[in-house]
Q: What sequence folds into this?
């Protein structure tokens, strides 16, 4: 006789992030080991989390499939970024791998994605440094950023720019990093305010938004 099917296991409901402001931006940079790290943490963000932008070092053509895979796992919508995309609550945008960098610009008072030509930065294209530097210019202090596992130093300079502009900044700790290169350089250069285990990264990022609100972080005026 066929065995009765097992009842589905109830998944714990994620807390709401509706109380967090939609004009806050969370940014993440990663490289070697980042695919696994992102697959682990991104499903932990509630569906109504403020916008998230990501640079994960991947070859051209791979990021679209990666975004589709994450979209099936995450409460938030995940997609490969396109030029002109607006940053929206509940949406994760992943920089396309390959020939262009992902920046943020303001249009009509709202941050938008700009995919721009350019030489590799920190040996990478797209570069975490390019995204983070734009984030510091356009969104700080109402932003939080994290450097995850990866080889090299991409993101260290950009994370420092975010911290100096008043944003909140974190680096994955050595014990949970597959490659403790990018997080180590960010920590050594003073860009990260703390080193965080991967299992605690989502609570720390969301908590940093709440802390910023409690500190009275002003809205960032629209830039020309």
A:
């Amino acid at each position: 006789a066929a065995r009765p099917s097992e009842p589905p296991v109830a998944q714990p409901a994620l807390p709401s992030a509706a109380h967090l402001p939609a004009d806050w931006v969370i940014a993440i940079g990663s490289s070697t080991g980042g695919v696994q790290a992102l697959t682990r943490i991104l499903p932990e963000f509630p569906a109504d989390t403020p916008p998230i932008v990501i640079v994960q070092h991947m070859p051209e053509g791979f990021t679209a499939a990666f975004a589709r895979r994450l979209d099936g796992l995450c409460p938030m919508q995940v997609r490969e970024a396109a030029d002109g995309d607006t940053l929206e609550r509940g949406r994760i945008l992943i920089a396309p791998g390959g020939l262009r960098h992902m920046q943020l610009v303001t249009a009509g008072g709202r941050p938008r994605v700009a995919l721009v030509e350019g030489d590799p930065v920190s040996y990478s294209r797209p570069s975490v440094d390019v995204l983070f530097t734009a984030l510091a210019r356009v969104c700080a202090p109402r932003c939080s950023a994290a450097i995850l596992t990866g080889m090299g130093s991409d993101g260290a300079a950009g994370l420092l720019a975010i911290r100096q502009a008043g944003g909140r900044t974190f680096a994955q700790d050595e014990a949970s990093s597959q490659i403790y290169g990018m997080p180590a350089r960010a920590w050594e250069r003073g860009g990260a305010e703390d080193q965080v285990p991967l299992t605690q990264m989502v609570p720390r990022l969301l908590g940093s938004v709440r802390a910023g609100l409690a500190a009275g972080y002003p809205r960032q005026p629209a830039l020309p």
